[in-house]
Amino acid sequence: MIAFNKPYGVICQFTETAGHTSLKSFIPLPNFYPAGRLDADSEGLVLLTDDGKLQNKLSDPDHKLPKIYWVEVEGLPTWAALEKLRRGVTLNIDHKQFTTRPAQARHMETPPQLWPRQPPVRVRASIPTAWLELTLFEGKNRQVRRMTAAVGLPTLRLIRYAVGEHTLADLPPGKWREVL
After folding, report:
1. For 110-131, how does the pLDDT look when each residue is reduced to its tens digit (9 = 90+)?
2. What letter does residue 116 receive in the DSSP assignment?
3. Residue 173 carries which DSSP code?
4. Which position among 10, 18, 153, 167 has the lowest Cβ density within 10 Å, counted as fewest Cβ atoms?
5. What is the distance between the alpha carbons of residues 171 and 152, in angstroms, rounded to a whole number?
6. What is the pTM (predicted TM-score) of this model?
């Protein structure tokens, strides 16, 4: 299995798409596929494997692997907003109402050893920003972004820090390593 720190703008597939770099530009190994995805606007940990059963286990929400996200949001989180994230947020995904599973949510300091994003996150001097740590046990399309928006805290930057026991610790953007 491979742990990869996906940079902003890279798509989680090996086929190039107009305007986006793919995993092929970073990972030269054949027959590896992502176990779960991050959208092009998100950064961070993507696990890849050449084992189909393991790929299913890692990406299937029934296995309840925790996924930790560091989220820079526009605005300052209130107790009420964090509590809504913890209880579950009702979202409209693909024209269907869906309530997220309860999540762990907390305000955090700027993540340590955070790399600069290219392009940089927009800054508006009149609107403060904050960082949240969210731990989810599921993964719907753009779920973190939808959850933070639903509680009045639009996402500015999204980094997946961990999947289960695997983390980004000491893994720079655009680099990968083999993991057990």
Report:
1. 998 899 998 888 888 889 999 9
2. P
3. T
4. 18
5. 32
6. 0.94
| Each residue's pLDDT tens digit, 74-118 | 999 999 999 999 999 999 878 889 899 999 999 999 998 899 998
CA 22/CA 26 separation, integer angstroms: 8
Contacts for 113-117 with beta carbons within 8 Å, 24 or more apart? 115/172, 115/173, 117/8, 117/43, 117/157
Residues 118 and 72: their CA atoms lie apart, in Å, by 15
Cβ neighbours of 107 (radius 10 Å): 15
89: closest CA among 102, 75, 74? 102
Is residue 94 flagged as an active site residue?
Answer: no
Higher per-residue confidence, 59 vs 49: 49
Rounded CA gap, 99 and 94, in Å? 13
Contact predicate 35/63, CB 8 Å? no
Q: Which of 39, 41, 50, 170 is catalytic?
A: 39
